[in-house]
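User: Structure with nicotinamide-adenine-dinucleotide, C-alpha cells only please.
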Amino acid sequence: MDPRVQAFLTKQHGLFIDGATREAKGSRRIDVFDPATGEVAATVACADASDVDRAVASAKAAFDAGIWSGLPPVERERILLKFADLVEAHGEELAQLETINQGKSINIARMLDVGASLGYMRYYAGLATKITGQTLDVSIPLPPGARYTAFTRREPVGVVAAISPWNFPMMIGLWKVMPALAAGCTVVLKPSEVTPLTSLRLAELAIEAGVPAGAFNLVTGDGATGAALVNHPDVAKVTFTGSTATGKAIARTAADRLLKTSLELGGKNPAIFLKDVALEQAVGGAIMGGFLNSGQVCAAASRLYVAREIFDDFLGALSQAVGGMAIGPGLDPASQVTPVVSALHRDKIIGHIEEARRAGARVVTGGDMPNRPGYYVRPTIIADTTNDMVICRQEVFGPVVTVMPFSDEEEAIRLANDTNMGLTASLWTNDLAKTMNIVPRLKAGTVWVNSHNMIDPNMPFGGYKESGIGRDFGTSALDSYTELKSVCIAT
Ligand code: NAD
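Assistant:
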C-alpha cells in the first residue's frame, strides 16, 4: 500500500469548511470499512444540521463576495486545470484509497475513477471560458418603433449542494463539482457515508490548486446530513446521484421551495442480443455490461434479452465464462470479481437472489457467497425469469444478471422497455437496418450499439422515466448550474 494512503487512513478526518479541515460539532463518528476484509479502515465525522449550516454559510459568503465567480474565466480554468494536474499527480494514492474503501478492482480505480475523471475534469475546466449568452433581435417593440438591444447572460446559480453515491464516489463527485465550479458556483459536497475517503482528499487538492476558501466545502455524514443540506434555504441547487427512492425524497423536499434539482438515479438496464451477433462478442459484452465493478454500476446491463436462436449457446458460454472469473480483493490486479461495498449491501443482493428462487427462477451459476472474509457475492446468472418477477423489476446493483429469450425484435423492444427505469440500454447486432429501427424505440437516456458502459464527458448522460431528471455531461450540463437572464436595453 502507498504510505500516503496508510497515513491518510489513520488521520482524524474532520469536515472541510472555508478552506480547511474543521472539527464537526456533531460528536458521532462513522466507521468506514474495507470491503475486502470487513475491517474498519478509517472513521469520519457525521455532520449535523449546525455543521451543514456552517458549510453552506461558507459557500454563500464566498459566492456573495464573488471571490470565485468574479475571477476572470481564464483564471478559473487555470485553477481547475491545476486541480486536475494534482489529481493526476496523486492518482495512484487516490486509486488505492478508492479500492480500499469501495472494494473495486485497482485496475478500474486507475482507469476510471482516476483516469476517466481526469478527462472529465479537463473537459469542464475548459468550459469555464466558454460560457456565453446570445444577442436577440426583438420583434414587437413597445411603443411601436422604439429601439431595443437585447441579450442573454448566463449567471452562476449560487450555492450548489452536491450529493454523491458510494459506487464511484470520487468520479461522480467530480461530475458535479467540476461543472459547478466552472460555472462560477460555490459548492458543498456530501459524499456517501459508506465511501467518503477520496472526496475528503479531493477537497484538500482543490484548495492546493488555488480554489479559494469557501468555494469548495465538504461535509461527511449520512442521509440526515444530506437532508439537512437539501433543506437549507441558502442552497440554490441540488445535484444528486443515488437511488430512485432518495431521489424522490429530495424531489419532494425540493418542491416546497421550487429548489432546482438534477437527479441521476437508478437503472434496470436491458441489453438485447440479436441472432447475428458473434457468440464471443456477445459474451464479452454481457460480462463488461453486467459485471463491471461487481455490477455496482448505475448503467449496468442487468437484464439480458437474447434471440431464441442463439439463447442456449449464449447461456452456456456466459455461464462458463462467469463461473471461471477470479474472485478476490480489489488491490490484487488479477481479481475479476471484487467484493461489494458493504455487508448490508451483500445481504440485500443475496436476498434478491433468494427471492428470485422462491419466485421460480433458476440460478444457473453463482447465487451464494464464497467462504472468505469480506463482502463477496459470487457472480450470478439467473434464467427462467418472467419480466414481472421482482428480480427483473428492481435494481439489484450487484454481480447478478437475468437472461431471457425473445422470439422477434418486437418482443425484445417490448421486454426491454417494460420497466419504470430508463437509464441505459444496449443493442448487439451488425445489422444496420435493425439498429436504426430499434435504437429510437428504446426508452433510455443512453443507447449503446455493440458496447455497454461507455460514457464520455461530451455525451449527455441521464435517465428517462424514474431514472432521473436532467442530464450530466456535455456542454449543456453547464446550463443547469446557471440562471439565464434576459437583458433588454432601450437604445
Ligand atoms: P442512496 O440514495 O442511498 O444515497 C446516495 C446519497 O444520498 C448518499 O450520499 C446518502 O447519504 C444521501 N442521502 C440519503 N438519504 C438522503 C436524503 N433523504 N436527503 C439527501 N441525501 C440523502 O444511493 P447509494 O446506495 O449511495 O447509491 C446507489 C444508487 O445510486 C443506485 O440506485 C444507483 O443506480 C444510483 N446511481 C446512479 C447513477 C446515475 O448516474 N444515474 C450513478 C451511480 C449510482
